[in-house]
Amino acid sequence: MWKVQPTEFLKRTLNPIRILWETNQPKGNPEISNIYLQLGDPTIYGNFLPHPNCAKAMSYAVLHDKFSYLESTGLKEAREAVAEYCKHMGNVTADDVFLTTGCSMAIETACRALANPGENILTPEISWNYTTWMNGVGIETKGYNLLPEKDWEINLDHLQSLIDDKTRAILVNSPGNPCGNVHRKEHMLEIIALAEKNKLVIISDEIYEFFTMPNVEYHSFAELSENVPVLVCSGLTKRFLIPGARCDWLVVNDRGNKLENLRTGFRNAAGRNFFPNSSLQYALPSILRDTPQSFFDENNQKIYKNAQIVFNKLKTVKGLKSSMPKGSFYMLIGIDLDKFPKIDTSLQFMQMLADEQSVFVLPSECFNYQGFIRIVLTATEEMLVEASDRIRKFCECHYEE
Fold first, then answer.
1. How far apart are CA 161 and CA 167, in angstroms?
2. Contact 395/314 with Cβ under 8 angstroms?
3. What secondary structure does DSSP assign to 317-369, as a single string?
4. Is the bond leading into 178 cis (omega within 30 degrees of zero)?
5. Which has the closest alpha carbon to 65: 286, 290, 281, 288?
6. Are residues 224 and 192 in contact, defined by beta-carbon separation less than 8 angstroms?
């Protein structure tokens, strides 16, 4: 008899967002059109598109590419371009840059470089699915509390309480998904001080770098840290609006050379993974250097306008608690479940909202949390207005004092 069974790796590797998106979608109300506000892909609505320079650079690269194998760490000219792009972090060189196929690969590489099976990394309690890339290989994730009443700052006392002799790193995310938070400089310095006290490396997920609302300052952890090594994971996916390109990077910021041995390990890891295809690497310098600042400014302004639309529409809806995000392109909306007696969870709220009003959102269960829904702010203004009106109607139907 055949006895092929899934490995523990397969059993533990779960991505709740993808599972919900691909296998457990509500069908919606057939009498009204569906409005999808779930997936964090800014390009699917047609109103946020990459700068024309991206297509031009990729077309030129494909036509002139010999499609040869490149260095496992990435094309030197591409890594030099990333180093120049990351100059806000300090003295970054091409040797500090490792190109990856997607930011998730950068995060996984950083985590597996620092922690062995049975060891742990501290992650935000409400967060994107970092567990997907750690639990499967036996790395434990320990969730630290965020404080919604303080714009989702980290509860530093709780963070400290989680640290033990098997803790290897603190993973942070700012601007954040799904909270839309952007940590203040002063708070970031407190986090860095705690990491230094406990001799822990910081892994910083900065894929939404510079995606901030007006008058909100953005800082990289690598920019602020003097003694704590910071592994920055970022790339083209969000800011440049080309998520399908899967061309991102891991930057090692280590002013004190505490990770000298780790660099060799990163090079070894680069030799076993499939990194961005050669054409993308040839196109990368032009994409980074020739995309104008006005492109980013315009996109940030559009996100801000969309956030205002949803916030102003929902701020007076009974049973909901809306707040303006400070960054990324999401709005996290709290649900007072006590006021909706027929609804027990945010997952059930999402399912009923889709079934009755054909508005599809993500429940906070997808982010290891309860009592919230996440809305993507990259839809068109018309879609967001209509979706907000339908959410109001849904809440008015089910709300009870």
1. 11
2. no
3. -TTEE----SBTTEEEEEE-GGG-TT--SHHHHHHHHHHHH-EE-EEGGGGT-
4. yes
5. 281
6. yes
Does this model's pTM top 0.85? My answer is yes
CB 135 within 8 A of CB 18: no
Q: Which residues contact 81 (CB under 8 A, 6 or more apart)?
A: 284, 285, 288, 289
Tell me whether the omega of the peptide bond preceding residue 175 falls within 30 degrees of 0, making it cis.
Answer: yes
Helix, strand, coil abundance in the chain, percent, nearest 5: 45, 15, 40
User: Quick one: DSSP state of residue 212?
Assistant: B
CB neighbour list of residue 19: distance below 8 Å, 6 or more residues apart: none
Mean pLDDT by runs of 10 across the 401 residues of the chain is 84 73 77 94 94 96 92 93 96 94 92 95 93 90 96 97 98 97 98 98 97 96 96 96 94 90 82 82 97 97 98 97 96 97 95 96 92 97 98 97 87
145: DSSP letter:
P
